[in-house]
Structure formats: structure tokens, C-alpha cells
Amino acid sequence: MIEALEFEFMQHAILAGILVSFASGIIGSLIVVNRMVFLAGGIAHTSYGGIGLAVYMGFPIFLGASIFAVAAALLIAMLTLHKRHRMDTFIGLIWAVGMAIGVIFIDLTDGYNVDLMSYLFGSILAVSREDLYFMAVLLGIILFVIVFWYREILAVSYDSQYASIRGINVKFFYTLILILSALTVVIAIKVVGLILVIAMLTIPVYIAEKLSNSLLSMMFLSGIIATVFTLLGLWLSYTYNLTSGASIIIVSAISLGIFLILYRQK
């Protein structure tokens, strides 16, 4: 593995893994405490519509996926702000429609783009310098939002009615959480693919939740755990010539199983 660090693609993969892991740890924590885990899968599959549109129109796939993901997040925010108990219904609908749109655009595109498989199962080894810039900027935005609005986000996440009474703009912060979740899902797709993205956003968070006593510590610990899983998954995929995204999730799942066994013995 050490000799692989000489290759630029491996350097990019490691940087991408660290950036996405911390973004996923922070946003995954918000997704879990807001009980929106299904949201991650819904947005991931909806973004396939943007991938199909980007392939058909010939513009960057990240851009198309981001546009669809953010649009889905805004629509979900509008539909579920006062009806969170109906969120699963709306997400399921948007999930199906987004996938259908993507498939239709792929059908209309001449030829077959083999790179599309990387968006289903991830392709961290194919991360470009431009992708790294996108990931770094998004992580910077997430950190900025958490640092300056942590109290407001904490209040909205745990008790939106109390937050509203205190004068906090619940609609704004709820929508902001959804938009950041959508963009994080998009960059996580590059690492583990849209099929496996839910696991990346929830397994490290579940472990961190058991070991933390505050939302902030849970976010930080989730990022560290996700980074360890990602680097171990990269090592496994490089050593045994396996798919990187699947390797990362397998490492995460095995680690979760070991954690649950040890945790229950305490």
C-alpha cells in the first residue's frame, strides 16, 4: 500500500476519502438525529436523474447530480416541513421519479457510457482534481454552517417547536440541513456509489452516537470513524483488487458487528 502512494490517483483517493468522510460524519449525524435516514437513499437515487441528464446533455455529471439532489431537497423541505410523518411517502415518490428520469435520459443517449457504473457502486480511484476542489469547498461550507449556527441547528434537530418559540427560523435551518445533506450525498456517491451511500452516512454515526454525549462530539467522532473505515477499505480494495466502494462498506459493516458484540458485553 505504501508504494501506491506514489501514484497521483491514490493520493487523490485518500484526500477524497478524508474529505467525504468528515462531510458524511457531520451531515450523517444530522440525518440520524432528524430521523431522515431514508432521505439519504431517496436523494441519492433521485440524483440519478441528474446523472442521466448530464450524460444526455454533455455537461459535468457532478453538476447534473447536484442540481437534481438540491431540487429534490428543496421539494422535500417544502412538502414535509409541517408533515414530517409523511416524509417517507414523499421521498419514495421522488426516489422513483428521479430514477425513472435518469433511465429515460440514458436510453435517449447514443451508445453506452460504462462510467455510469461508477456512480452506482462508487469509483474513488477515479477522483479528479476538480472533484477534490468540489469536496473541499463543500466541507468548508458545512464547517462554516456548524460553527456559526450550531445552537440553532441543535434546537431545530431535537425540538423544532421549541426552536420556533425561541424565534429561530425553523424553515430556513430545516431547508439548509436538507440542502447540505443533498450535496453530501452527491460527493459520497463518488466514493461508494448511490446504492451504498446510506451505509456510509449511518454506520459511523451509529457507532459515534453510542460513544458521544453531545451532537458536536458525535459529528467529530463520526468523521474520524468514517475516515478510518474509508482508508481501510481503500487498502483492502488495492491489495485484493476489489471494488473500492463495496470494500469500504464491508469494512464498515464488519466493524459495526464487532462494535456491537463488544458494546453489549459491557
Structure description:
Helix content is 81%, strand content 0%. α1 (8-33) runs parallel beside α6 (129-158). With 266 residues, it is mainly α. It has one domain: Orthogonal Bundle (ABC transporter involved in vitamin B12 uptake, BtuC). It is built from eleven helices and no strands. It is globular.
A few lines on this structure:
Helices cover 81% and strands 0% of the residues.
Silhouette: globular
| Class from helix and strand fractions | mainly alpha
State the helical fraction. Answer: over 70%
Supply the CATH architecture.
Orthogonal Bundle
How many distinct domains?
1
Poorly predicted ranges: none
CATH superfamily: ABC transporter involved in vitamin B12 uptake, BtuC
What is the class in the CATH system? Mainly Alpha
Average pLDDT rating: 86
Total DSSP E strands: 0
Q: What string, H for helix and E for strand, traces the elements in order?
A: HHHHHHHHHHH
Biggest sheet details: none
Individual helix count: 11
Estimated share of beta-strand residues: under 5%
Distance between the termini: 35 Å
| CATH fold name | ABC transporter involved in vitamin B12 uptake, BtuC
CA-atom Rg in angstroms: 18 Å
Summarize this structure as a short list of keywords or feature phrases.
266 residues; ABC transporter involved in vitamin B12 uptake, BtuC
